[in-house]
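Risk register update: the risk of archive-format incompatibility is retired. Evidence:
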Amino acid sequence: MNFSNGNEATISSYSGTLLFYTNGCSIANYQNEMLENGDNINAGSIFNSYCSGTTSGYPSGTQSTIVLPLPQSDSIYYLFHKRVILITNPLNILTLEILYSVVDMSANNGAGQVMFSPDGSRYIRYNPKNKIRMFDFDRSTGLLSNCQNIDVDFGDFDPFDGGMAISPSG
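Archived output:
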């Protein structure tokens, strides 16, 4: 599996042992074996161009993939990732979809399995000016609606940027 487009993510056990990793194209376990159903997590034309042979991985921009453990579980993980559209003149990367895949590392005798990639229905964005903005996201049209502004008081500390995650229960 090749890496260099900034769309990489890994997760380790509590003791520091590698469990699985991704380059935005596929998901492999600690033995460098492809997880069952983990061979094309961002299927489409970009996947076809960048995720075969010796290419460098899915080009969705830096810090665009994250793995989070399911609370109270030692084997279920959520891999959040996105599909993109590449604009060439000028060069730009636009988000097409925000997806997540559920990885069960207890499946296949500990070798792991990607369980499913359900549709996302929310989009959350943070920046210092607008704080947290949460939208409903319609994946069939790509439209954001029902904006909710959530003001956060950081006291004297005002971070210039940040990331967000949505729990499985919404």
